[in-house]
Amino acid sequence: EVQLVESGGGLVKPGGSLRLSCVASGFTFSTYSMNWVRQAPGEGLEWVSSISGGSSYIYYADSVKGRFTISRDNAKNSLFLHMNSLRAEDTAIYYCARVVVTTIFDAFDVWGQGAMVTVSS
Amino acid sequence: DIQMTQSPSSLSASVGDRVTITCRASQNIKTYLNWYQQKPGKAPNLLIYAASSLQSGVPSRFSGSGSGTDFTLTISGLQSEDFATYYCQESSNTPMFTFGPGTKVDIK
Q: Using CA atoms in the order A59, A118, B43, A22, what is the torsion angle rounded to 10 degrees?
């Protein structure tokens, strides 16, 4: 079964740091680009970051650039999001998602269950 | 940056109704448009990709159309399990993506 499982969420104070993990199973992890998408409480979806299969290409939303770092360990089928200088507005459920890429479309076809991050004093 | 809008932001409908949700892009995105369904407390689920292609396993009552800047998601014969929030997503500027604000479909 194709599956993504996030972990590492929790409560952190403003200015603090946290690392999210996402473990993949059921597919050849290294051949897929992976993404983080977040959803603030009661709000819509916001793309956060993307990393290519071999980690050569990395992109961030402006809202997290310079504070968050995406990485992956293909030997361990794992995706990470290192979050520094956290702010109250970073409070959200963070989903990891697999991207299926073709010549005519890119789409998030597999999602994890989400990890809740709360930034509060 | 590409901006995505959806209308309506919410709607009430009955089982069996035909429901149409509209998504508009701020610039031409050809058919680089996906639709997702999200139920409360769950992760989003891909319904439609490339504007009109049905994702494997998704019921045929869901359909998508459009190109350029204007797109629609149609549910033909709403079922109880379809009450959820629907998001469009543009993928013309990958690997960066923009989601629409969502349309909540609830029971009349």
A: 60
Sorted by sequence, the CB contacts under 8 Å of residue A28 that are 6+ apart come out as none
Q: Which helix (H) or strand (E) holds B104?
A: strand B103-107
Q: How far is CA A83 from CA A52, A66, A100, B105, in A?
A: 19, 10, 25, 34
pLDDT digits (tens, 9 = 90+) for A10-56: 999 999 999 999 999 999 999 999 999 999 999 999 999 999 999 99
Contact assessment for residue A74 and residue A63, using Cβ atoms and an 8 Å cutoff: no
Q: Is B9 left (phi over 0), alpha (psi -120 to 50) or beta?
A: alpha
Query: Tokens 């059921």 correspond to what residue?
Result: A26
Q: Which of A:42-101 have CB within 8 Å of B?
A: 44-47, 50, 52, 57, 59, 61, 95, 99-101
Residues of chain B positioned with their CB less than 8 A from the CB of A99: 94-95
Query: pLDDT tens across B58-89, in order?
Result: 999 999 999 999 999 999 999 999 999 999 99
Provide the pLDDT confidence category of residue B108 given band limits of 50, 70 and 90.
confident
Give CA angle at A62 (A94, A108), nearest 5°: 45
